[in-house]
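Contributing new complexes? Match this layout with uridine-5'-diphosphate-glucuronic acid.
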Amino acid sequence: MTITFVGHGYVGLVTACVFADFGNDVWVIGHTDEKLKRLKSGDPIIYEPGLKELLEKNLRAKRLHFTKNYGDAIPDSEIVFIAVGTPPKENGEADLSAVLAVAKEIGENLKNHFTVVSCKSTVPVGTNLKIEKIINGCKTPAAKVAVASCPEFLREGTAIHDTVNADRVVIGSDSAEAIKLLLKTHEPINGQRVITNLASAELIKYTSNAMLATKISFANLISFYCERTGADVESVLNAVGLDKRIGRIFMDPGVGYGGSCFPKDVNALLNTGKSLGIDTAFLEAVENVNAQSRHNFVDKISAHIPEKNIAVWGLSFKPNTDDIRFAPSIYVINNLLKKNFRIAVYDPVAMDNIRKIFGEKICYCNNPYEALTGVAGLAVLTEWNEFKEPDFAKMKKLMKNHYIFDGRNIYFNNIKDNNNFAYFPIGKKPII
Ligand code: UGA
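Output block (do not edit by hand):
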């Protein structure tokens, strides 16, 4: 089958490589010459485990092609996936300008055979109808087209695995022919099939992300209670999670959720709700707790650290990605800078991205230990594996004072053996 992806970010490029690996002939459309050149040479641009190897393999097999011209790809494609960004506007609404511009380009390049245009970008309810209208307004009368919503549920850091081992494949469309073709394309992918209409498919994606964000905010809210009462957040959540109706998974408290999805999608769902006249207090509370998690962490540091001099380990919004969009690190660093802290940072892959934001305001280190030299404390913001079993004796020697603020609770079990640190976890009694 010939398939086109418009967009080569975490969703577009990963899914394109996976579908090429299944044996399809896959085109990827981008709009920046420099990026397309890098992609053609086997450089995925983004950091995602296993992606470079999959890209190189499918380029070598000539199953993957990159182009700027819609005319190279669209006329021969049976399915066209839209996978461009929907970043938040200042008012929180999803910015659909890229999606709608792409729809027009696709419409203008469709040929006479039947084509399915399917949106993998996360778009508010009703967007696929707009896409359909734009395409029908500019295609030639002979071109037959059906629109379908096929939301993506992959997580950054495990994107390839998640794509192949999906829990569910959701296809929303009014066209039986489009559903049949999409089912065929997704055949090698695991997971239950959910066939529904356009609006439901669009809402399934937002509901999933808002529910996951709610679980995290709920865990963070309970951690605030624990810190003020002497209760232990892990004991509480482990016991609560044993109730199968609740489950323990995806309820780890910390410095709040970040990334390009939860902050953006909760906000977009909130905005859609407002425009529909729905009371959105529930979703506002989810956002407020998330913001509070970051405030509390900065307040905790300010209240306890003896000198305004700190190392930060972990800058990406989660491990195994270089993505720093809405990362807790940005909020924490910004607020520590406002309080005149000197900050030394280290992250295995996100240093270049964070440098673009903070420039010369902070110090960038080549390894985690270099960041500790002479500091009063360490703040851990991302639970990268390489931070989990550090050399505490070495840390002790390098740091001037020995304060650890653990935003991900990764040291609680081994810090007891190294109890010369003043240790501040989330939702648990500090060890001082
Ligand atoms: C999320 C969803 O998990 C995917 O299913 C979805 O496809 C994706 O958004 C998307 O809409 O494209 P992602 O943002 O890549 O995936 O990462 P997650 O693993 O969900 O983590 C999001 C944030 O929540 C991270 O900052 C993470 O540290 C935080 N988190 C996660 C917690 O604070 N506690 C947890 O228990 C789990």
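Reviewers usually confirm one structural detail per submission. For this one: The chain has a mean pLDDT of 96.
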